[in-house]
Amino acid sequence: MRVGIVEDHLLLQDILTEGLRGRGLDVVGAAADVESATRLVDADPPDVLLLDIRLPPDHRDEGLRLAELVRARHPEVGLLVLSTQGEVSFAQRLLGMPGESRALGYLLKDRVGNLDELIDALHRVGKGEVVIDPQLIRTLMTGPPRPKNPLDLLSPHERRVLALVAEGRSNLGIAEQMTCRVGTVEKHLSVITAKLGLGSLGEANRRGVNVRVLAALAYLRGAGDLAC
């Protein structure tokens, strides 16, 4: 897998580069700001771009803006964003980017200390999956209640399926987690998308809409009311 790195802390940039190369990944280049990262991706698009959410000059949302730019120019490039804090609004913005590609990830920066977890996330994003940090999922599930939560329409089983979708699990992966058949998961997803007002899966496919991303986004917006 070919990986690009965008990290303004040069020591961490070097650690990531050496660590990933040492595990057999091809790090095609590293950058420390949006401008140099844009040149890097335009010149030689990687399979996955690993980027910090806060970059110079203001260290606010430059990484997200870079992700939006890369998705617009190179929709085939997977995006794995690192953040020191689990900002729900940033995760919602990342998942809400236009386009059919699902290859997106949002991890807390602490995961950098565990190369196995980081590399697993890179591979999953490279395969087109959505990866959301488990800690962010837990934060959402224990957050303050919100009025008129559409997730109240879902049964406990449907909520669990949707939570696994939000983590980027495939239908097979969800079936394995819930010890049921893939067909059962597909039926749950059809009911979930209908209850959330996302339309049928067949209709979404005809319109080129990625229902799994929309469902994951709906989960992020409403998961503060979940009690599983």
Automatic annotation (TrEMBL):
HTH luxR-type domain mapped to chain residues: 147-212
A Gene Ontology biological process term: phosphorelay signal transduction system
Residues annotated as domain Response regulatory: 2-124
Pfam families (alphabetical): GerE, Response_reg
Name listed for the protein in its UniProt record: DNA-binding NarL/FixJ family response regulator
CDD domains the UniProt entry points to: LuxR_C_like, REC_NarL-like
Family matches, as Gene3D superfamilies: 3.40.50.2300
An example Gene Ontology molecular-function term: DNA binding
Lineage: Bacteria, Bacillati, Actinomycetota, Actinomycetes, Pseudonocardiales
4-aspartylphosphate modified-residue sites: 52
InterPro entries given in the database record: CheY-like_superfamily, NreC/VraR/RcsB-like_REC, Sig_transdc_resp-reg_C-effctor, Sig_transdc_resp-reg_receiver, Tscrpt_reg_LuxR_C, WalR-like
The entry's keywords: DNA-binding, Phosphoprotein, Transcription, Transcription regulation
PROSITE patterns from the UniProt entry: HTH_LUXR_2, RESPONSE_REGULATORY
